[in-house]
Amino acid sequence: MILQRKIAIAFFLCLGFGLFCTSCGNDSSSQKPGGEETPPPAAIKNVVVPKFERDSAYAYIEKQMSFGPRVPNTEAHRKCKEWMAAKLESFNAEVVLQDFVAKRYDGVDLQGTNVIGRINPDAKRRIMLSAHWDSRFISDYDEDEDNHDKPVPGADDGASGVGVLLEIARLLDKYPIEYGVDIIFWDLEDQGEGRGDQNSWCLGSQYWSRNPHVSGYSARFGILLDMVGSEGARFVKDGISRRFAPQVVNKVWKMARAMGYGDYFQDINGPELVDDHLFINTLAGIPTIDIINRPEGSKTGFGHYWHTQKDDITVISKRALRAVGQTVCAVVYQTDGGRFL
To answer: Rounded to 5 degrees, what angle do the CA atoms 72, 226, 199 make?
Structure first.
């Protein structure tokens, strides 16, 4: 397996870059359902995929952790928001801070902000990449009941997806493409009611789906990252992804496996899952998939550290960050080259 992966990586990452040349069919549609014209499909061209730097993504996770748990209505939350916006600006993204107020399931008003980085904001063809950035305010699944009232550190559950996408933003600045990319960090994703109403979760993506940052916003597809950084992560094709974006999820998994990441991206159909992509699909109508760790045999369906004090930097694996980051990076650059969808 190690030898096979080295061969695959050598093929894709020639001289510090990944050269990936798998041809995929182009979307030849010229009209949206309402009759509005869409841009013609991009011409197919050779594609050079930059090397995803896992150490850089890891450093972005460490930085988020340095603020403390990013619980809404706290100083740590505010400082992290400002830092993420500054990082996106440093990568020449046009930054939009979408402030909103939402009521938590117990009646508490939460001050939320979706942090949005627009790359090539004038481009009509767009991809949406997203992750949530908030930390859960209670550790309700911790084995120690004394910890239940403590906020979750949120290394994997939040910070890992943000770290991966910030590294991709850095690469897009260094190695520009013609496509537009919207990198969105959702707020108030993880403040929901245990096994309660599904609408108590993902408050930031629900708000955005009803109030997009650009009137009439559309994207060809979206990819959501959630808990993508732990050792031994297992990504399966969840039911929402398969129902709303089957072509996207199948091609992403096929690409990852071809690149040597089949031990992470397993060709298994999983159940439907309430996550930000549910509301992006159903409310905003953008076909969006979820890359999220779903360990086999887990009692909760998630990692052993999920919603506990154990979700700290020690659970993060640089190898997992590389598997996800290089795959998503390849998807973005392949799409720009007319070779993905």
So the answer is: 60
